[in-house]
Write a structure and sequence with these properties.
Elements: E1 5-8, H1 15-36, H2 39-54, E2 66-69, E3 72-75, E4 79-82, E5 86-96, E6 99-108, H3 112-115, E7 116-117, E8 132-134, E9 140-143, H4 151-162
Antiparallel strand pairs: 1-2, 2-3, 3-4, 4-7, 5-6, 6-9, 8-9
Helix pairs in contact: 1-2
């Protein structure tokens, strides 16, 4: 593939508190629970392990959260969709408690299962964080607050590729 590519990675600012510290505490707590014969500590270790697994995508450097190219969009956890299958890209918002966060809403020409193809990024594990949310109206909302790149950069990349300049 030749041409331009835009990749946006997960925001990794809190990787230690989200992944490494819970994983280390889980190891220590789990081993202590096994050696001391205290099953409650093993349950706490399992919960800490789950917390670390939820944020595991933050540890990967080989797969971005979002990749835009002349071929289409690849979304980590979902797969790839071609530009011709995207009918509309609009600015949106994600409401988290009282805070509104930037988002992008994608509409498609056909149902979502028909437009997405499996790639190395396809791994829908419901416990892991992800930047997308499947909506009931057949659209996908991308939460831009979970990315390292600014919302303006991501929106600009979408405008660039949707305009056919690639």
């Amino acid at each position: 593939m030749s041409g331009r590519t835009f990749t946006a990675d997960y925001d990794k600012t809190n990787i230690a508190t989200r992944v490494w510290i819970p994983l280390g505490l889980a190891a220590v707590t789990g081993m202590t629970g096994l050696l001391a014969g205290v099953p409650g500590l093993s349950i706490i270790a399992a919960i800490l392990t789950f917390v670390a697994l939820r944020f595991w995508p933050l540890t990967r450097f080989d797969r971005p959260a979002l990749k835009l190219s002349e071929d289409g969009v690849e979304i980590d956890g979902l797969g790839a969709v071609r530009w011709r299958d995207i009918s509309d890209v609009r600015d949106g918002m994600v409401q988290v408690k009282a805070v509104k966060l930037p988002a992008i809403d994608l509409s498609f020409t056909r149902p979502i299962p028909d437009v997405f193809s499996a790639t190395a990024a396809t791994r829908l594990r419901p416990w892991e964080i992800r930047i997308f949310k499947l909506r009931r109206d057949g659209k996908i909302r991308l939460d831009l607050s979970k990315l390292e790149d600014t919302p303006e950069d991501v929106r600009g990349a979408f405008r660039y590729f949707m305009s056919g300049n690639a």
